[in-house]
Amino acid sequence: MAAVVVKDLRKVFGDVAALDGVSLSVRDGEFLVLLGPSGCGKTTFLRIIAGLERQTSGDVLINDEIVNDITPRARGVAMVFQSYGLYPHLTVANNIAFPLRTQGTTRPEIGRKVEWAAGLLGIDHLLHRRPRQLSGGERQRVALARALVRNPTVFLLDEPLSNLDAKLRASARSELKQFQQKVATTTIYVTHDQVEAMGMGDRIAVIDHGKLRQVGTPSAIYDHPADDFVASFLGTPPMNLVEHSGGLLGFRPEHFLPREMLDGAALSELLFRIDRMEYLGSERILYGALDGFQAKCDVAAKLPAHVPLSGIRAGEWHKFAVREAELRYFDRDGRCTVSPKEQAR
Amino acid sequence: MSAIAEAAAPRRPPRSRFTTFDRLEVLGPLFIIPAILYVVVLVGLPFLLALYYSVSAYSIFNPSWTFVGLKNFREVIDSEIFRRTLANTLIFTISAQIIGLLLGKIGAMLLMQEFPGRRLARALIVLPWAVPVSLATLAWVWMFDSLYSVINWTLVAAGLIDPAHRPQWLGQEDLAMIAVVTVHAWRLFPFGVVIFLAGFTSVPQDVLDAATIDGAGFWRRNYQIILPIIAPIIMIALIFGTVFTFTDLSVVYLLTKGGPINSTQVLGTLAFQVGILSGDVAHGAAICLFLFPFLLVAVILLLRSLRRREI
Amino acid sequence: MRSEREISTSAVTRRGFLKRVGATAGTAALASAVSLPFVSTALAQVKTLKILQWSHFVPQYDKWFDGFAAEWGKKNGVTVTVDHIPHLELPARAAAEVSAGAGHDIFAFNGSGGPHLYEKHVADLGSLVSEVEKKHGKVHQIGRQIAYNEDTKVWSALPAYYISFPGLYRKDLWDEIGMKPDTWEDIHVGGAKLKAKGAPIGIALGHSVDPNLSYRSMLWSYGASECDQTGKRVTINSKETLEVVKLVRAIYKDAMEPEVLSWDDASNNRYLASGRGSWIHNPISAYRSIQKATPELADKIYVWKTPAGPIRRLACGAPNSYVVWRFARNKDTAIEFLRYWTDNWVAAFEASTGYNHPLFENLVPKPMPILSNDPTSHPADKLQVLETADEWHATYGYPGPAGPASDEVADNFIVVDMMAKAATDKATPEEAVAWAQKEIELIYKKWSAA
């Protein structure tokens, strides 16, 4: 059963299409990550589902019901904003209680639910503080607690970790994921951070320029990008793309290794001139050019740092290789296709 | 010794001629002196003088500095006219604030909406604030005129009132108070609009969206979210407006001269009548000083709310 | 009395500084700044004379006066400057000049109380007054009221002139009811009849100058007054006052419209000009402006003496006077100029088109120019009754002198409010009179202590 379905959603601001015909169905209890660069329309998508904005055309269904004309409060969604949108003049307890008050929940019930949500997120001791007296992580939890108390059909999270520092973000990521699994509420999570997307999403939907590029599990997205945008958006560094018989040939830097490190058959050997090297502690990244291929940017190779670099020096040509299974082909329009060889067969 | 000093001198780096003025401890006081002078000469001294006048027997007829204690205050309070004036001043100030700010809020909310000509409307709305008070009040004098009141003309034309019993805006005690309050509220209105606009735009969109999603409708959003958040700003507007209205005499003086039967007499006009027109400086100062406790409270509130905003 | 709203505008604008706490003191503090330019020019010139007076509501008069003063200056080797400011600014200006001890040499007070209030700051003009009296006849009681201090025997000002306060009435309408507005009783009875015909009479009942004059006139005509002859004992609480208050209440209800409560000094002029009013108590300025605007209406408007009461016929005139500041640099020159001005009073009278009434008996011999024969009026002797104005005029403080106390009573509109309270049933006539007695006593007590 699908908790949220959108059909051919379009949203036009002036003459710019922020969303250009997006259709997507989010399964019940699923953690779906909406991934895309900033300005791709992902926040607009979320706001339309929440009812904060009205789509130009298309339908939004929540629990199989068209909610196009239903107010935000009647949609049964909860949203956590990038800056959390906490009410600065209310205590934490009152922040959490606010959505309950608007529903006319009785006092004892409000007290009970606030306690429950605060307990679940470990913020019981903060209930009498005001938002400005809280750290970033604490604020995020309050925002989550406020979203949680209403027992919403869907959680909408708009980059909720972007205001946290890097160290906190990592732990918040896993906490959030665990929390979602515990409450098992359908969640749509918007981010431009592929690490968050890969690490948390049951599925990832990649959006660019208002269009849905690919929906799939993290591994499907990573291993089998549907087009050159998805390929180049995910991975650090992203997939190498070189021109090849009218289309593009792609391979991930971690699959592009010195010939001597790979054994077995079905290898494509490539002559690689290393221009510069980056040592990142756990790995080395080598940048350079391929003999006989045109590429828009440097081709990168990612090697585990513990592998000795025997004879590989900057400025020199070296024999590298990729397993053929790891090669991806994209046609003239950038869409993923089978290899020319298979095509010929 | 001097030889050594001379020998050492050339080695020192050349001194910039701006050195003195580059130093913060010199520049700071220098810049603040005009402000201090202003406060001392044009506010502090006259205030102290007023304090002294109020406990002296000073009048233009007999400019003596004889100390009379609180006699002037006792005599002032003895007058029914003064007691009425004090009450009027409070009614006048409070109602002008309430109406002015309420209209300001509504105006600001309208101006937040997109509509053609919004920029022009935003510019025009400041007009009552920008027009000199005397000119503006004169326009109102004509609007309230006994014979040619455009307000009455409109009401009669609309069939709402009987021309034989048209309201005498400046002649009936309650209406006269309404008239002076109206003019003051009208003058405060643009200030209210500007303050509320500033307040509204300072509320983060996320907070408003959160409230919408949390199920708050228009009224709940306005009164449980927006108003409490912008309360400190509104407080400042309120206090400024209060001081502004409380100490004003021009509107009343031009509209009614405090009449009819002192129903619109305020401290400012009464002090002017007694202290300047009649030359009884001591009692005029005493009347004036009744402004002081109220203004003091207003200023304390202002400073406190300013401090709260800083946190 | 006057229809110059623009004047009051700038007056109050300039007084914007009063918005501050301690404004009264501010006046004094500002004074030195204000007067600095005068001091410096005074030093630069060998012989100067600086005169300050109000902007007369007859502009020709100001023009004549400026030329007259300049010519006198040329003849006598004195640089004369005449400054005109709105009359509402005069009190604050006087206070400022005195606090600074600098400003003009001659200061013209408009209104009654100035000379007494400033007695300690002005030169005694006793010898000038007696000289003028010798030459031009006895000083009028208004002159004595405003300028002479019985206790100190000081003449603090030269009485200049007063603006008379007659009745202006629609002869056509009054003829219809077969009456003439000659007594206050006529005003009540005739006014009631005319109100029934849609043409009420009008005396302002709000805070403005005109009603201050009108209701005092009425009190005196009935033998009532706010104080006794000494100007020290408050006598407003009398059965005569009560009678007048009751009469005003009756006039308000029977012969006037409620709009009189909101009138300012220009409203009654407009009221008469609108063709609705059948009688107003006002200087002839109202008639003059109607002459310009609607001549056919002006022809129906006649001028008669202030209404009489059972005791006497007496109106409260608006006096003007000249003081010479004690700090003036050229007191003798100033007195010299005032003497010369008095000697040319007929010219001054003509320049004022008959508004400025003389305060010395023979200054303007009868028949008086303009009043006896006004070519613009039909009939030409319409204003002739004003030749007798000195017989039926006094000013504030009557029967005592006009002083700071009687002025403050006027400034605070206590007599007017006493009438308004009773007229609008906010108080019974008895309560209104008792209230006025208490408020006026407070003021007189205050000033007698000073």
TrEMBL record, chain A:
This is ABC transporter. Belongs to the ABC transporter superfamily. Keywords: ATP-binding, Cell membrane, Membrane, Nucleotide-binding, Translocase, Transport. It is a peripheral membrane protein. It comes from the Bacteria. Residues 4-234 form the ABC transporter domain. One of its GO terms (cellular component) is ATP-binding cassette (ABC) transporter complex, substrate-binding subunit-containing. SUPFAM superfamilies: MOP-like, P-loop containing nucleoside triphosphate hydrolases. It holds the Pfam family ABC_tran. It comes from Bradyrhizobium centrolobii. Involved in beta-(1-->2)glucan export. Transmembrane domains (TMD) form a pore in the inner membrane and the ATP-binding domain (NBD) is responsible for energy generation. It is found in: Cell inner membrane. GO terms for biological process: carbohydrate transport. GO terms for molecular function: ABC-type transporter activity; ATP binding; ATP hydrolysis activity.
